Amino acid sequence: MRIKLSFHIKLFLCLVAFSCVLLTLIGVYTYYQLDAQLHRDLGARAQVQAREIALIPSLVTAVENNDTQYIATLMKKIRASSDASYIVIGDSHTMHLYHSEHPEQLGKPMVGGDNKEVLQGKSIISIRKGGIGISLRSKAPIVDGNNQVVGIVSVGYLKSHIDSLNARTLTQIVASVVLLLMALFVFSWLLSKNLKRQMFSLEPKEIALLVRQQKALLEAIYEGVIAIDPQLRIITINHAARELLDLRQPANNLMGQHIGEIIQSQPDFFATAQLGHDTHDEVCRFNHVRVIASRVRIMQEDELQGWVISFRDKNDINTLSSQLSQVKRYADNLRIMRHEQLNWTATLAGLLHMQRYDEAIRYVEAQSEGAQEILDFISQRFSSAALCGLLLGKYSSAREKGIELRFDPACQLRQIPAVLNETELMSIIGNLLDNAFDATLRCAAPHEAVELYINDSSNELVIEVADRGTGIAPQVRDTLFEQGVTTKDKGDHGIGLHLVASHVAQAHGSIEVSDNDPHGAIFSLFIPKA
Fold first, then answer.
1. Which of 27-36, 333-342, 470-479 has the lowest mean pLDDT?
2. pTM greater than the 0.90 cutoff
3. How far, in Å, are 72, 123, 347 from residue 99 at the CA level?
4. Can you give the three-state secondary structure of 322-341, one letter per residue?
5. Which candidate, 6, 24, 370, 347, places its Cα nearest to that of 180?
6. Chain centroid offset of residue 128 CA
7. What is the side-by-side strand order in the sheet with 289-300?
8. Subcellular location, in the record's words (predicted)?
């Protein structure tokens, strides 16, 4: 069974393993460097001692006379102050005249095979196996007054002595490596635990998945979202924010820039005094766009890490409000039709209850004649059931208000253009009729009819609504379709015509507005079928 280790355990083991290998290599390299340095130092020390001994005049005379007794007495004092493993004196025939460790070697030849150069007057350093083992030694010639080599001085350090020195050095190195490993062990553990805490105990794969999910989530959000750090630098920004603010640069180019360089807000949404608290649904202006913005602090362990700003176009809220108002008007139309139907039914029930059958029949014929005629006209001329319901509702609503909604005999709509959906078409016609009714009601009674023309017989859909109301004031004629512009005195207005213009523009259509003699206005819409 395969054991799956967590990230911080893997990191800890990798750090420990790497540290062990690294410190081992450093230890081995240091040991060999110190060993080489020790050999150089001991060789130089042996050479200095050998040369100094060879220059002693009394020793030169004793060697010439083979006075081993004097040589032994002289060398005993020197040996006592030397740290060498041995000191050997030989004659010109490489025969032992003195050996500090093995006096029995007197008269025996010196071994090692490195005496030839010394007898030629040279001082050497070599590693050879002598009479008492392998050693690092230096040999110097003993020269008389005639510059003739009369003997040899050999000062050496046994390999066992050198190994003991290296052992002490190695022990120090190993102790240092162990201490460093312990320190690195503790450091690696603490580092891995700290990383685990900062990563919220998540694995790298889980973090990568979260990052991808966050990126996808930000791009899927309809609202603009920007995250900034404590220095007000942009951390992340989604596509909706760049689109709302009309930022042409790629998201990567915006990262790290100060938010004040990207967004000019009124009032100052990023002022220091404002950043100390969260805010929700605050109306302000970002660059050229009126938005509804929220700002929330990012806190970690009571420490501020930055802010998240979300915002949406204020016009979208107004548009949604207008669409909800349109739905409400549909409901009102149905309520009116139901109210009229209840009144009609109650009247008919009363006549039947009083057994006035002839009057009941005449009442039914009188009421149904007009209703059936308009019902037949609408159902035959318009293929959309929802549009038929809207027109019937508007017709009944107009009658209740004392206004006649008059349909042009040439009206027909066989198919809604592909560039419009049914909801948008109903929004256009409903808003135009509501505006016409309102303009008509602002005139004195009796109210004149509102005329409606819808026709798709050509290559475009033509919609025309004419009223004989108060008309359009000159001061709002040029800005009539802008949001918030209205000729009404009170209420939540200025949205309907803006919504109409938006739908027509999306369908690549056009709108014409003209005066209707002697007073009133005519709205003509032309929407291409393709």
1. 333-342
2. no
3. 8, 19, 151
4. HHHHHHHHHHHHHHHHHHHH
5. 24
6. 70
7. 234-237, 224-228, 303-313, 289-300, 279-286, 265-266
8. Cell membrane
